[in-house]
Design a protein that fits this description.
253 residues, Rossmann fold, 2 domains, 8 helices
C-alpha cells in the first residue's frame, strides 16, 4: 500500500517499541522515514531491518531535549529529502516514583524529553510545513495524562502534550497542518515491562492482572498505536485536527 507515497516522516524515539512500530507502519505505506534516536546501535539495526523490507529510511542520532541536536537532525533530513511532511513526537522516558521520593532529576528528565523534546522538534519542523502548506503532527500522549499513581512527572508531561497539541491545531491549521495526539493505554513494550519490574511482579502476572481490568481483555500491541497514527497522517484525515485519541482497549476514565 502507498497511502503515504512521496511523504517524509520524522519519527523520534524510533528505534524500538512504539516508535519502531510507527516507523515500520508509515514506511510500509510508502513514506520515507527519518528515524531519530539517542541510541545509535539500535537506530542502525532498525534502519537496516527496514531497508531489507524495501523502506527508504535514514537515521539520525539526537537527544531531543538538546535544541542544537534536534535542529541539526531536521536540517540534515530536509537536505536529504527536501521536506518533512509528518512529525511524530514519540521519544519518551520513565522515571517513576511516588511524589515524596521523586527527585529533581526524575522530574526534569521526564519534562525535558517529553515536553521540551516535542517543542524543539515541532518548532524546527513547522517552518518547512508552513512553507509547503502541508503537515501532519502527531504526539504520543498516554492515559496516564488522566492521573496515575507513581507518575506525577510522566502524567504531567503527557497531559502537557495534549494542551500542546490543541494549541498547535489552532495556530497551524490555516497552513494545511493538522496536530493530533494518540494516548495509549497499557501497551506491551519494554517500558511496561519496566513498570512490572518496578512494582516487583513478573510481566506475565502484571499483564494478566491488567488484562482483567480492560474491556478488550488484553494489553495493546505497538501496532495498535501505529495504526492510530496512520489514521491521523493520511490525506483523508485533513479535517481531523486538535484531537486526542485514546487507544486503550476501552473507554478512558
Amino acid at each position: 500500500m502507498n497511502q503515504l507515497s512521496n511523504r517524509v516522516a520524522f519519527v523520534t524515539g524510533a528505534s524500538r517499541g512504539l516508535g519502531r512500530s510507527i516507523s515500520y507502519t508509515l514506511g510500509s505505506n510508502g513514506a520515507k522515514i527519518c528515524l531519530v534516536d539517542i541510541d545509535e546501535k539500535a537506530a542502525h539495526e532498525t534502519a537496516e531491518e527496514m531497508k531489507k523490507d524495501g523502506i527508504d529510511v535514514t537515521y539520525y542520532i539526537a537527544d531531543v531535549s538538546v535544541r542544537s541536536q534536534v535542529e541539526q537532525a531536521v536540517e540534515e533530513a530536509v537536505n536529504k529529502y527536501g521536506k518533512i511532511d509528518i512529525l511524530v513526537n514519540n521519544a519518551g522516558v520513565l522515571r517513576d516514583n511516588l511524589l515524596f521520593k521523586m527527585s529533581d532529576d526524575d522530574w526534569d528528565t521526564v519534562m525535558n524529553v517529553h515536553l521540551k523534546g516535542a517543542f524543539y522538534c515541532t518548532r524546527a519542523v513547522q517552518k518547512y510545513m508552513v512553507e509547503n502548506q502541508y503537515g501532519r503532527i502527531v504526539s504520543i500522549s498516554s492515559t496516564s495524562a488522566l492521573g496515575n499513581r507513581g507518575q506525577a512527572n510522566y502524567a504531567t508531561a503527557k497531559a502537557g502534550l495534549q494542551g500542546f497539541t490543541k494549541t498547535l491545531a489552532i495556530e497551524l491549521g490555516k497552513y494545511g497542518i493538522t496536530a493530533n495526539a494518540v494516548a495509549p493505554g497499557f501497551i506491551e513494550t519494554d517500558m511496561t515491562r519496566k513498570t512490572a519490574e518496578r512494582i516487583g511482579v513478573s510481566f506475565e502476572e502484571f499483564s494478566k492482572n491488567l488484562s482483567d481490568t480492560i474491556p478488550a481483555k488484553r494489553l495493546g500491541q505497538p501496532e495498535d498505536i501505529a495504526n492510530a497514527v496512520l489514521f491521523f497522517v493520511k490525506e483523508e484525515s485533513s479535517y481531523v485536527n486538535g484531537q486526542i485519541l485514546y487507544v486503550a482497549g476501552g473507554p478512558a476514565n
